[in-house]
Amino acid sequence: WWIVKKLWDKGLIYQGYKVTPHCPRCGTSLSSHEVALGYRDDAEDPSVYIKFKLFIPSLLKRDSVLRSILKPAALSEKPAYFLAWTTTPWTLPGNTALAVAPGAEYSVMEGEQDHLILAMQLTGRVKLEGYKEAGVILGEDLAHLQYEPLFDPHDFGVHRVSLPSLYVQEARKDLTYPVISADFVSLEEGTGIVHMAPAFGEVDFDAGMDRGLDFVQPVDLEGKVTGTYLFAGKFVKDADPLILDDLKSYGLLYLS
User: Where in the numbering of this chain does the Aminoacyl-tRNA synthetase class Ia domain appear (predicted)?
Assistant: First the structure.
């Protein structure tokens, strides 16, 4: 410990944060050895597609091609949504960004009531009856658009802090989150749009630190949802169907 103290005094030891696997029964992080022994493998993970509503003012600041494709959305005639796939609905209250592949092509699918945005090569894997392609946009052109949060943490008594400083943020009337471009986005499954929750994934957290994303932690050390959500107090896996029901009531659950 004497050596460690000397190194610390000389500023030679790095102090930071990382996301680790967690045991809600013990209330502690799991070591790499414990993880290697294996997780419980009979937990059921639902496959769901969630709609994240495009924040129109962010669209109006972009190039004319993008505005032209989404003209009905810009005119508030039909809303536009980013369509993201997830198997962990319980992480959705912690969502603070969406990630797209910068070089991939994304289809804007126009339906009777709205527009859906997803990777062009994955449109055939999602049920899109009644939708037709209105245009194609590169992922890098979607980056820096904003969308409305599924759950504004301030409405449910949960802190929102900024990375990497971890400063607590004040409530905002029109809170929005960013679309970012990232090389880790896969086009093998899902929609080519990744839901990011820095509180719940190592890749998500690292992206949050690099991009200055917000950090929202709505789950306590016992694995129970905090705050005043309709599903507050529930263990995360028990909260899955309740979260989906809540999103469905707002028209944000596209497919399950």
Answer: 1-56
- pLDDT on residue 114: 94
Residue 96 lies in a domain: yes
Amino acid at 98: L
Residue 34 lies in a domain: no
Distance in angstroms (rounded) separating the CA atoms of residues 71 and 60: 10
Tally of structural domains, the chain: 1
Measured CA to CA, the distance from residue 225 to residue 93 in angstroms comes to 9
Q: Evaluate whether residue 223 is within a structural domain.
A: no
Low-confidence stretches of the chain (pLDDT < 50) are: none
* Number of neighbours of residue 81 by Cβ within 10 angstroms: 22
User: CATH number of the domain that 88 lies in?
Assistant: 3.90.740.10
